[in-house]
Amino acid sequence: MRGFSSDYLRRTRRGMWGDREALELARLGDAESVLDVGCGNGEFTRVLVEETDEADVVGCDFDLSHLSDVRESLGVPVVAGDARSLPFSDASFGTVACQALLVNLREPRHGVDEMARVASDRVVCVEPDNSSVCVESTVAGEPELARRSRRRYLEGSDTDPALGTDVPSLLRDAGLRDVSVTRYEQELVTEPPYDESDVTAVRRKASGESFRGRRDDMEGDEETLDSLRDDWREIGREAALQLSGKEYVRRETVPFYVVVGKK
User: pLDDT tens digits for 201-219?
Assistant: First the structure.
């Protein structure tokens, strides 16, 4: 199972749940207790707290540093635990939920089986299809370069980055019934006025630092990946020029699937 920094989680989950209509089928308002598995730094935990009606919400993650963030920022109980072997007894929580967890597990069915085991009412999974990400940009060539990079990432990953569309079958295989699905699109938008994270992202792109952080997960020989890195630096420099003139606009759309199954 992969581990992620708080900065990474904040950046990739920015723009999530401005519109929460897709969560309606989860019936969070009826929940008496909710477990957020793989809660990270608490971005989805916060949504669960806000959408439930005085329910007991608990965060669970194997990374202790994330748990400290959640406890301090949200004031909810947190428990250290592995999604593949949750430290809870059967039917401990009414609703068990996760966001972008299964996509990072080599054996996601184990995670779903565990979520189903500790749930007494329903399981809610919010997972992306990273193979269908769409990038639009004012920098010519960035959308195509993003597609090339994503293809390398998909081929090099030891998990299934496109898992989202397969989650319904995983829930059914775990014995859950009445499985329902809603598609939700996360939009990550960079546009004026830029915030600090926008400026940092462009700077890291221009320096090659952003690519270095993803290189180990990509398929390809050294020459191919070096060429990809150089292309990203060129794109980053052009983005920096546009950003200085308040002309840079980038929109990344990530499809997520909200999947709910009942016990």
Answer: 999 999 999 899 889 889 9
